[in-house]
Design brief:
The complex is a heterodimer of chains A (about 260) and B (about 240).
Chain A lengths: L3 H24 L9 E7 L2 E5 L15 E4 L2 E8 L6 E3 L6 E4 L3 E5 L5 E4 L5 E2 L5 E2 L16 E6 L4 E6 L6 E5 L2 E3 L7 E4 L2 E3 L8 E3 L8 E4 L1 E3 L5 H33 L4
Helix pairs in contact in A: 1-2
Chain B lengths: L2 H25 L9 E7 L3 E7 L2 E8 L3 E8 L6 E3 L6 E3 L4 E6 L2 E5 L4 E3 L5 E3 L21 E3 L4 E4 L2 E5 L2 E8 L5 E7 L5 E3 L1 E3 L5 H34 L5
Antiparallel strand pairs in B: 1-4, 2-3, 5-17, 6-16, 7-8, 7-14, 9-10, 11-12, 12-13, 14-15
Classes of the chains: A alpha+beta (about 260), B alpha+beta (about 240).
């Protein structure tokens, strides 16, 4: 039967997937530390009706073949790890990473996860935890009598205790960077898990080893660019429509062929 | 039997194959670096007809046994470049192809959406190493910031670690969609970092081609009907005379 029907259907499925990805980006336009995702496509298999270099009648070699492609499919979803805009919040527990790197947090099951969302809170024990209550790793405990909390660009956290004049260092934040952050596995809740594709975690203090530094009292906004996403949405929708036209045309051809016999 | 019947049927079959190619172009409207396939039709079995006048043969003209889809050729025209801001996205402005080591052998592509793997090797989205000069994969140290220069050289923290092997030649599509063929390096390639080359499929062109195809298809159907009618008359009505 006519291949065009299935080829164009594969094209429509690709575009549907594209719109799924764009919709998720747009849904996360206000998610702190969110990194936009792009769907990349590749052409599917080519069917060779006649190979190039085949010998034609009379002994001449055919310079080109007759190959027809069978559509497209999603090749990868690729996270774009550019830094989002920093927003000053004034909250002393908010942190943003300027440059590469992730905060390391401990999940309840003992596993490690990574995040760019630096909107930390205090839990009942005075630990710095994410919005979902997962503590920073290594743990940082703010003493209960702390009156003022200061976070340096190098991640050193100092506090001034009530009734005292001097400040006291209570710990330093460790950040982790990866050769290929796009290889991390997204598990939701702004968290990433390690995969072999991401490479060995490179741990260190902020500002060393190519790791970004910490901006205190600020949050990193989502790096989703609404205009870019809208343009991609338009492209995806039009591509979807035009593929449906290819199906219509193939259908019309079949109907014409059907009417050959009266 | 009537020749025209077969000529028209051949024409319909050829146009159906061409529609397959157009559908594939449209399905790859959003495939980075995709190059459109275009149908080329050709007449077949052309022969010269003669009229006998006494003992002399008087030429009448050529008669073909119809048109076939001779080839699907690739349109190598450059697609539009769009900026992405990702330093590992590169596009070639002008001639040339990136060289990639796939499990099936060396392939060439215009898709410059690259990524790094755990060891710092530059890969395509499909996970195949991108080759640099000397046919070697390009590796960057783990904690380096990668930049790609206008001549295709790859810099890690400002130090040159290799140069993308950009080639040109007589290339055709392999079954996996990448290109294959004999190549030689491009002397002065121009590489744009932070950009990708979009598919070169033009929606308007494909729509027009599709309209043209379907109308030609319908016309051939009408020709078959006309022949059918002629035959019907010959069979059913001539004996009545």
């Amino acid at each position: 039967m006519i291949r065009a029907l299935h080829t164009a259907a594969a094209g429509m499925e690709s575009q549907q997937f594209n719109i799924d990805v764009i919709a998720n980006n747009l849904a996360n336009v206000n998610t702190n530390g969110f990194k936009t995702v792009r769907a990349d496509f590749e052409d599917l298999l080519y069917q060779t009706l006649r190979p190039a270099g085949a010998t034609a009648a009379g002994g001449t070699q055919l310079p080109s073949g007759l190959q027809v492609g069978l559509g497209s499919r999603p090749a990868a979803t690729y996270g774009l790890f550019t830094t989002g805009a920093l927003q000053v919040t004034g909250n002393p527990l908010d942190m943003a990473i300027e440059g590469d790197g992730f905060f390391k947090v401990l999940l309840p099951d003992g596993a490690i996860a990574y995040t760019r969302d630096g909107g930390f809170k205090l839990d009942a024990q005075g630990r710095l935890v994410t919005s979902n209550g997962y503590p920073l790793e290594p743990e940082i405990i703010i003493p209960p009598d702390a009156e003022q909390i200061m976070i340096g660009r190098d991640g050193v956290i100092s506090v001034r205790r009530g009734g005292q004049d001097g400040v006291e260092e209570i710990g330093q934040i460790t950040l982790v960077r990866f050769v290929n952050p796009a290889g991390l596995n997204r598990i939701g809740l702004n968290l990433y898990r390690l995969t072999p594709a991401a490479g060995e975690p490179i741990e260190g203090a902020p500002g060393t080893n190519g790791i970004g530094s910490i901006a205190g009292s600020a949050l990193e906004a989502s790096n989703v660019q609404i205009v870019d996403e809208m343009v991609r949405l338009i492209m995806a929708q039009r591509a979807y429509e035009v593929n449906s036209r290819a199906i219509q045309t193939a259908d019309e051809m079949l109907s014409v062929a059907k009417d050959l016999k009266r | 039997m009537i020749r025209g019947l077969y000529v028209a049927a051949e024409g319909m079959a050829a146009r159906q194959k061409a529609q397959d190619a157009i559908a594939n172009n449209l399905a790859n409207l959003n495939t980075t670096g995709f190059k459109a396939d275009r149908p080329a039709f050709a007449t077949v079995y052309e022969r010269q007809l003669y009229r006998l006048e006494g003992t002399r043969a008087q030429p009448i003209g050529a008669l073909s046994a119809g048109a076939i889809l001779r080839e699907l050729y690739t349109d190598f025209q450059q697609g539009a470049l769009i900026t992405t801001g990702n330093p590992l996205d590169v596009a070639i402005d002008g001639v040339g192809f990136f060289t990639v080591q796939t499990p099936q052998g060396v392939r060439y592509t215009r898709n410059g959406a690259f990524q790094l793997d755990a060891s710092g090797t530059l890969l395509t989205r499909a996970g195949s190493p991108v080759l640099g000069e000397g046919n070697q994969p390009i590796r960057v140290p783990p904690s380096a910031t990668v930049q790609i220069g206008e001549d295709g050289s790859v810099l890690a923290n400002g130090t040159r670690v290799g140069r993308l092997l950009i080639v040109q030649g007589d290339l055709a599509k392999a079954p996996d969609g990448d290109f294959i063929g004999a190549t030689q390096p491009v002397a002065n390639p121009r590489v744009v970092a932070g950009a990708l080359e979009t598919s070169n499929v033009g929606m308007v062109r494909e729509m027009v081609a599709m309209i043209e195809l379907i109308r030609a298809y319908e016309t051939h159907q009408k020709i078959i009907h006309a022949h059918d009618e002629t035959l019907g008359r010959a069979i059913n009505e001539l004996p009545k005379v």
